[in-house]
Amino acid sequence: TVNAVAGHTQMAIEMMLDFKQNIFAGYKDILNDVKSYITSGQDLFAQYVGREYDSSSDYWLLKRDGKLEAEYDENGKLITHLNAEVVNRDGSIGKQRLITDTTGSGSQSFYRYLGVEQASNLLGYDVNDISGNRIDKQLLMQVTDSGSNALKAMLSDPGFSINDLTPSQKQAYIAQKVMKNSGMAWSDETKWSSGEGVAFNLKRKGTIGNIMFDTELVNGEYGKSTIAADAIRDYTSYSYFRNGVRDSEFAYKDKIIFTQRDLDGNIMSSTSSKMHTIDSMAGDYDEPFSHPLFGNVQGNTIAPGEFSLRYRSTSNYPLDPFVIFNASTINGTNIDLSGRMAGNDDRWLMHQNRNNNRDSEVGTDYSTGVFVNGCFGFETEDYSYLLDTLDSWGAYSGYEFSGNLTENYWW
Asked: What gap in Å lies between CA 131 and CA 307, rounded to an integer?
């Protein structure tokens, strides 16, 4: 948390220097951070952060199931940055900062993360409709800073609509309408607060996979999308390593397609790459599997069906690998959330092929060919391009792709 607060404070200082003015006037929390950062040493700043921030739960939290959860600091105050729930290398659940908020406002940050369309979905009607009993007069009076007489005059105009509000007033009204509807309440002391477990579903009927956020605001909100992975195994790939013999003619016959969609399921972008999905190594826990067409093949090969990928894990590979999880092998081994089987430290990964770095088979020449122990392997150039593309779409370290593997036979 100290590093996170220092990071957004440095950004705030840089923005004030760039604009040559205090653009955060009125944002008490940010200005307090800046003051402490400038006037305190490292130890005193850490103590300040410890008082003002709670390291365990001080953010809007994007859950792995697509819900946006309200979390609070030790003083019961909603903090407005956005974190994502991610799975650590050991399979435990952690958090990662996605967006550092600069508004200092619980409702304004919420509007940016939720968006007007999902606000309508959660309320069950168009948020722009303030007719009849759908209007919250008290809330409208608060966000416009109007008295009761001014509010009556405003509402007496038959042409009045929510679009007559300023953009910031409209955003505050919509966000606070949803927050109040969920049971959250406002007080001058704690600002926005609620009971335990308040969460807002960001997914829609057409949403496929985990949600990620754009980094730029459009019309006052962050765009959101998902990425899914479809792997296609060519049946001839099994011929690469069967009955203990390799045949390089059948390397990289398989394919993976990544598709980015909006939350309604509409395709935004797509990219694909050739890869290799057949286990081509003989390990201690890798029993051969008797394939009805290809004889003995290695059993660590991922079985057809659903699987998941976790983006950019730490490893000793030059380029960050994906972790394969929630899958099974053709030998029936279940791969858990950490990408491992029970009782073994090795993980199933999707990674660049790296030769001359294996020693499990003495006397084997690894200078050519593809060598993966049940993992998905890529040629380095293809893999590097794939990472660059997914980065440009907004995929973050720890993002989880929903996937499906099919086998392409001739019949």
From this structure: 47
Distance CA 103, CA 112 (A): 10
Residues 6+ apart with CB under 8 A from 216: 222, 223
Q: Which of 56, 76, 60 has its CA nearest to residue 68?
A: 60
> What is the C-alpha radius of gyration for the chain, rounded to an integer number of angstroms?
26
The number of CA neighbours under 13 Å toward the Cβ of 206 is 11
> Under 8 Å CB-to-CB from 273, ≥6 apart: which residues?
255, 256, 378, 382, 383, 385, 386
Tokens of 119: 């606000």
Q: What span, in angstroms and rounded, lies between the C-alpha atoms of 253 and 234?
A: 6
Q: How far is CA 94 from CA 55, 344, 397, in A?
A: 12, 22, 12
Share of the chain above pLDDT 90, in %: 42
What is the C-alpha to C-alpha distance for residues 221 and 216, in angstroms, rounded to an integer? 8
Residues 149, 151, 157, 158, CA torsion sign: negative
H helices, E strands: number in the chain: 9, 22
Q: Where are the alpha helices (DSSP H) in 20-115?
A: 28-39, 42-52, 106-114
Q: What is the pTM of this model?
A: 0.78
Band of residue 130 on the pLDDT scale cut at 50, 70, 90: confident
Please give the structure tokens belonging to residue 300: 């660590």
The encoded tokens of residue 51 equal 């008082």
Question: Are the C-beta atoms of 175 and 213 separated by less than 8 Å?
Answer: no
CA distances from 329 to 9, 135, 301, 335, 363 (A): 47, 56, 5, 8, 27
Is the per-residue pLDDT at 11 higher than 70? Answer: no
- The count of C-alpha atoms lying within 13 angstroms of the C-alpha of 2, restricted to the half-sphere facing its C-beta, is 10
Span 215-269, pLDDT tens digits: 889 999 999 999 999 999 999 999 998 887 888 899 999 999 999 999 999 999 9
CA 109, CA 195: separation in Å to the nearest integer? 19
One-letter amino acid at 123 equals L
Pairing status of strand 93-99 against strand 82-87: antiparallel
Longest dimension (CA), the chain: 89
Measured CA to CA, the distance from residue 368 to residue 371 in angstroms comes to 9
Does 301 score more than 60 pLDDT?
yes
Tokens of 72: 């609070």
